[in-house]
Amino acid sequence: MSVDATVYRKAIANFATGVAVITTTVEGRPVGMTASAVSSLSLDPVLLLVCISSRLPTHTAIAGRGRFAVNVLGEESEVLARHFATPQPDKFASVMLREDQVDPPILSQAIAHFVCDVERSVECGDHTIFIGAVERCECASTGQPLLYFRSAFGRLQTPDDYMLHRGLWDAGL
Q: What are phi and psi of 41, to 5 degrees?
């Protein structure tokens, strides 16, 4: 039985995900792309995975370099997510990077980042699953994630947001 790709895309769009920019370097130049297919895999050892289309330049760069970073985007970073999702000659020309960590590039706006060495890669369909051994990671003490749902960016509604939206704060609840 074969599933129609259009129906599958519509159905999977109902699965909300976080948004990240995957970065690496190739021949000393930074490359990157927006991704939502990122997942924690293991705590012992510490592993995560990213799924990347085999037709993208970032795929080729990670496969050759064997190293990548996952930059988790905050809710204020929709413009950055769209920037890295769009093909262009130099995606890093106007992007602020952390100066203390340059290989692979870490985005200044990231609310968390993970630097990984490729532990294993598995080709599946038109994508490759890159399993990364996390070498180091860091997270901000504040910030909410940028979300992707039904082909649109959004934000997490916190309990306080919900109460304000419903007018429950004013009601003393």
A: -120, -45
| Residue 12, H or E segment | helix 5-12
Q: Is residue 39 part of a domain?
A: yes
Strands 46-53 and 127-139 turn out to be antiparallel
- For the record, the structure tokens of 172 come out as 């003393």
37 domain residue, yes or no: yes
Report the number of distinct structural domains present in the chain.
1
Residue 172 falls inside a structural domain: no
Round to whole Å and give the CA distance between 84 and 36: 12
In angstroms, rounded to a whole number, what is the distance separating the alpha carbons of residues 51 and 97?
Answer: 23
CATH number for position 42: 2.30.110.10
Residue 173, domain member (yes or no): no
pTM, whole model, 2 decimals? Answer: 0.89
The helix (run of H) or strand (run of E) holding residue 83 is: helix 78-85
Residue-wise pLDDT for 79-118, tens only, equals 999 999 999 889 999 899 998 777 899 999 999 999 999 9
Q: Whole-angstrom Cα distance, residue 106 to residue 99?
A: 8
